[in-house]
Amino acid sequence: MVTHLPVMVAEATEMLRIRPGGTYVDATVGLGGHAERIRALAGPGGKVIGIDRDEEALKAARARLADQGIILEKGRFSDLGDLLAEEAEEGIDGILFDFGASMMQFKDPGRGFSFTSEEPLDMRMDRSQAEKAEDIVNTRSERELERILKEYGEERFAPKIAKAIVRSRAKKKIASCRELAEIVSSVYRGRGKHHPATKTFQALRIAVNDELDEIRKGLDASLGLLKTAGRLCTISYHSLEDRTVKNFLKDAQREGLVRVITKKPLTPAADEKRANPSARSAKLRGAEKL
Ligand SMILES: C[S@@+](CC[C@H](N)C(=O)[O-])C[C@H]1O[C@@H](n2cnc3c(N)ncnc32)[C@H](O)[C@@H]1O
């Protein structure tokens, strides 16, 4: 099984100001690292609910968190309002979002998130969803592919890559992660420290899972669920996620709905960055419901 080190656990749980007996939601429970810590701090009288759209993550979380009394539910966080209808009346004390894909999704063979593998181009966090990355790559117009690469990958070679994809799929359907990575590499200029296909894969992952819209809707739903003085805490891993959160919180503050706690996002301590490469780009933001 893939192990996963939860990111900025101490900072996030401190920001959530977890108190014994409170009700807390981990909207991206993954393998349960944060949820486990929240459970310990909320004490036996507290209620902790973990949500994930990925059945396999939930299965792993169930195995890991067995007997800890954490309620686990499958769903998208854009549906938090429905998923937490029971808790809505009394309200929730704190909600955590740890965005993006988990190590399990990146590393498990067959999920199609990794560009170095022969895996089918999948990238669905929820495998019951119909559309896979393969469908986007093989059916969307060149213009639409270019938009996805620009908007969700900030890829400066978006027009060239979109053209190369369309040219290649006219000969043969693009089926594997490696095939797509090779197409991207064939038109990429310049050398950086990242694989040329990094931004393309990020863009497709965001498109397949509608990630930015999910963030906006999830944050919006949270505001309707938090008690006054309840706290919202987010961990982002790239600029598009972080910008989406920053803009949402700025608007919510302007409308008098929240007080933003983090003028600037917190980042992991040097020790954590050294010990956990996945934490390197993490940015933590928080807000308090007014
Ligand atoms: C970075 S991982 C979370 C890791 C977790 N905090 C831990 O300690 O193990 C992100 C998780 O959020 C889930 N996820 C992403 N977008 C989601 C959404 N819109 N709704 C529900 N879960 C989502 C992913 O399936 C993944 O398991």
Can you walk me through this structure?
Helices cover 46% and strands 15% of the residues. With 290 residues, the chain is α/β, with parallel strands linked by helices. It folds into two domains: 9-104 and 211-289, Rossmann fold; 112-209, DNA polymerase, domain 1 (Orthogonal Bundle).
Summarize the SSE layout with pairings.
Layout: H1 9-15, E1 23-26, H2 33-42, E2 47-52, H3 55-65, E3 70-74, H4 80-83, H5 85-88, E4 92-98, H6 103-107, H7 133-139, H8 142-153, H9 158-171, H10 177-187, H11 198-209, H12 211-225, E5 226-236, H13 239-254, E6 258-260, H14 270-275, E7 283-289
Helix pairs in contact: 8-9, 8-11, 9-10, 12-13
Helix content: 40-55%
Number of domains: 2
Sheet with most strands: strand arrangement = 3-2-1-4-5-7-6
Terminal Cα span: 42 Å
Spatial shape: globular
What do the pLDDT scores average to? 95
Based on the structure given, which CATH architecture of the largest domain is correct? 3-Layer(aba) Sandwich
Q: What's the tally of helices?
A: 14
Per CATH, the class of the largest domain reads Alpha Beta
Helix-strand category: alpha/beta
Number of strands: 7
Report the sheet-strand fraction.
Answer: 5-15%
- Secondary-structure element order, N to C: HEHEHEHHEHHHHHHHEHEHE
Calculate Rg over CA atoms.
19 Å
CATH topology annotation of the largest domain = Rossmann fold
